[in-house]
Design a protein that fits this description.
With about 425 residues, the chain is mostly helical. The protein contains 19 helices and no strands. It has a single domain, classed as Up-down Bundle (Growth Hormone, Chain: A), CATH 1.20.1250.20. The longest helix has 30 residues.
């Protein structure tokens, strides 16, 4: 369902658009870049140290599996409320709230790690998931004022700068050891202390300096739609669902983003456990996850260029092929640390192609009135399915093998593959 006002704005847009809009976009990008680097340091601690802490505190595979999914579940539960907050109050309030919520989770995890407390462990991991939610939401904030033909590149730049923080996060155990010696805290508690400080700082920076708010600025410059009577005005959730039913591009984008998340999370979450069972040290596991996260983010600018230049579905198709290579590598060589590292790198690159292209297409296709809420909704659903996949992957790995897990992940790629091939064939036939 096309948005006439969005179409009018896109048709009127030129590279020489108003100096004021260009200035706001530059300032927005600068703030988002700084915040992503700092905030993702705190977020990046959950996939490695958080998973290991869950196993140590619970000492039970079933409970550890639930704890491993808590941060992803937190991102899912908080994604939609934060998206709705952005729709009501703007990006600044939503992003700051998310980062500060995650900082509170990090503080709880300091106590959980220091005294092996189960409830603070679960609550802390749940709350730190808010950092993941707003880290994802920031990529949409970058696209609010971007040119229609540069949305993928703007979005990808914010994804890319998160590389530094996301790679450093899994290795906070190293500075954590130094803090541990100085303070008497455990290594894990020290790592989460650093994470909480970074998350709190990220929230403060975005709250103070993300002015003017890009989403509010964009709404102020968009013509006001004809008022709809209260009786006929649909609810925010219903409006998003109605749009997805009639908007083929947004449906494809949603399926792409959800598939990428399920495939990536199911494998990435269980890799530290698999490596630990084969004698991998905390350092090796941290490096492996860091390489995976580098694969997710490092090539994002190139992915954005490909999506803008050659089409979003071309980028999705490339990502599917890379995903297949990653799963084949991990499935055939699960006992080799080197091959597992390569598999995780490819897994991250495949996610980057599919997620960046799908997110940019969704941001472009969805209408203005539903944009912020639907963006929060897609991230919430993405994380919810990711949490379910991670939770299911634990028992599956326990009763079968890592190779079997890769087979299930490969099967999850089939619907998106068929949709991508079908849309490509229809595109050539027109």
């Amino acid at each position: 369902m096309a948005d006439p006002q969005q179409a009018t704005r896109e048709q009127a847009y030129t590279p020489q658009d108003t100096a004021e809009e260009a200035k706001v976009q530059r300032r927005t990008m600068l703030v988002l870049v700084i915040v992503q680097i700092i905030g993702t340091v705190g977020v990046g601690v959950a996939p490695s140290i958080g998973i290991l802490l869950a196993g140590e505190v619970t000492d039970n595979e079933a409970w550890a599996g639930l704890a491993r999914t808590a941060s992803t579940l937190g991102a899912a539960l908080l994604g939609l409320p934060l998206g709705n907050l952005a729709a009501r109050k703007g990006r600044r309030s939503a992003l700051a709230t998310g980062w500060w919520t995650a900082a509170g989770g990090g503080a709880l995890l300091v106590a959980a790690a220091q005294w092996s407390l189960i409830i603070p462990l679960f609550v802390g991991l749940l709350l730190i998931g808010a950092g993941s939610a707003v880290s994802l939401q920031a990529r949409f904030a970058a696209a609010d004022l971007a040119s229609p033909h540069q949305k993928a590149r703007a979005l990808a730049l914010v994804v890319w700068v998160g590389t530094l923080g996301s790679v450093l996060g899994p290795n906070l155990g190293v500075p954590g050891e130094a803090i541990s010696q100085a303070t008497g805290l455990t290594v894990f508690a020290s790592a989460f202390l650093i994470a909480a400080a970074c998350l709190g700082l990220a929230g403060t920076i975005v709250f103070v300096w993300l002015r003017p708010d890009p989403l509010v600025f964009n709404k102020d410059r968009t013509p006001t739609p004809r008022p709809v009577s209260a009786a006929k005005k649909p609810g925010r959730f219903r409006g998003v669902v109605t749009e997805l039913r009639s908007n083929a591009e947004s449906r494809f984008a949603v399926i792409a983003v959800l598939t990428a998340q399920v495939v990536m999370v199911s494998i990435m979450t269980m890799t530290p456990v698999h490596l630990a069972h084969h004698g991998g040290s905390v350092t090796v596991i941290g490096i492996t996850i860091s390489l995976h996260i580098a694969g997710m983010y490092a090539l994002a600018p190139g992915v954005g260029f490909i999506a803008d230049r050659y089409g979003h579905k071309v980028s999705v198709g490339i990502g599917i092929c890379i995903f297949a290579a990653a799963l084949a590598t991990g499935g055939l060589k699960p006992d080799s640390t080197a091959w597992m590292m390569l598999s995780l790198i490819l897994l991250g690159v495949g996610w980057s192609f599919v997620n960046v292209a799908g997110s940019a297409l969704f941001s472009k296709a969805v209408s203005n009135q539903n944009r912020a809420s639907s963006q929060g909704g897609i991230d919430a659903l993405s994380n919810l399915l990711g949490a379910a996949a991670a939770f299911a992957a634990g028992p599956l790995l326990t009763v079968t093998s890592f190779s079997t897990l890769t087979i299930f992940a490969t099967a999850a790629l089939i619907p998106l593959t068929l949709l991508t091939l079908g849309s490509s064939i229809r595109g050539r036939s027109r």
